[in-house]
Design a protein that fits this description.
By secondary structure, the protein is mainly beta. It has one helix and 13 strands; from the N terminus they run ββββββββαβββββ. The strands form four sheets. It has a five-stranded antiparallel beta sheet with strand order 5-13-12-8-9, with no helix packed on it. Strands 6-1-2-11 form a four-stranded mixed beta sheet, with no helix packed on it. Keywords: Signal.
């Protein structure tokens, strides 16, 4: 994600946190869009008809049906190791983790993870409202617990991805996971949340989005972009 202000550009890699308490059909979520723009901001609509995506996670494949990437190869969700997940890699490298997932490591240059068959980077400004979108994957039901999406934003500018433990020291938002559109297909219901972009100096940063399905069962999604 790229973040701009009159003097500041923020490039962000994203990872989301979701928490589920009740036993459910096995299903995993991920960040489908990092910069979702509503067609009508006065009537927020997370469905495909309700807006468009202007920024994606790293190496996010275009042309796929919403909520379908858990059955793709490689799948979109990366499950961190169950033992000491707070010490796990924050973004998938397609090798580590209980479920390696897709490659969401930081590219060099960062632009290599965007464009062509992949979605575009996110460009935003300090103080802007940024909205992220994700599929419910059967965890938006009324009988589900009040789960939370945690957004963590690194303070390290133009550097390598920081560790999971460092990211957990920089939480900038907590969003309700079950903020979903109505629909009969519980697996594909569109959900999302918005937050204000905090002050950062011009540069590139890692923003993390992280979900805990069960105790010590964490799934992550990462995005990165650059600013001028």
């Amino acid at each position: 994600m790229v973040l701009k202000s009159s003097f500041t550009v923020l490039v962000v890699a994203t990872l989301a946190l979701f928490t589920s308490q009740a036993p459910q059909v096995e299903a995993h979520s991920w960040a489908n869009c990092i910069d979702w723009k509503f067609n009508n901001p006065k009537r927020p609509d997370w469905s495909d008809k309700g807006g468009k995506c202007l920024g994606y996670a790293r190496r996010f494949p275009l042309g796929k049906a919403f909520g379908s990437l858990d059955s793709a190869w490689p799948n979109r969700h990366y499950q961190q190791v169950n033992k000491n997940p707070d010490s796990a890699l924050p973004c998938s490298n397609r090798r580590a983790g209980k479920e390696p997932g897709s490659d969401e490591t930081r590219a060099n240059p960062v632009s290599k993870a965007y464009g062509g068959k992949y979605g575009r980077m996110t460009v935003t400004h300090v103080g802007d409202t940024l909205c992220v979108r994700w599929p419910a994957k059967n965890h938006g039901k009324k009988n589900e617990g009040k789960t939370v999406v945690q957004i963590n934003l690194s303070k390290v500018r133009n550097g390598k991805d920081i560790t999971q433990r460092e990211l957990l020291k920089n939480t900038i938002a907590r969003l309700p996971f079950k903020n979903c559109m109505p629909g009969k297909n519980e697996d594909r219901r569109a959900c999302g949340g918005c937050f204000k972009v905090p002050v950062r100096s011009a540069g590139t940063y890692l923003l993390q989005w992280r979900w805990m399905l069960n105790k010590n069962e964490w799934y992550t999604s990462c995005a990165v972009s650059i600013g001028p």
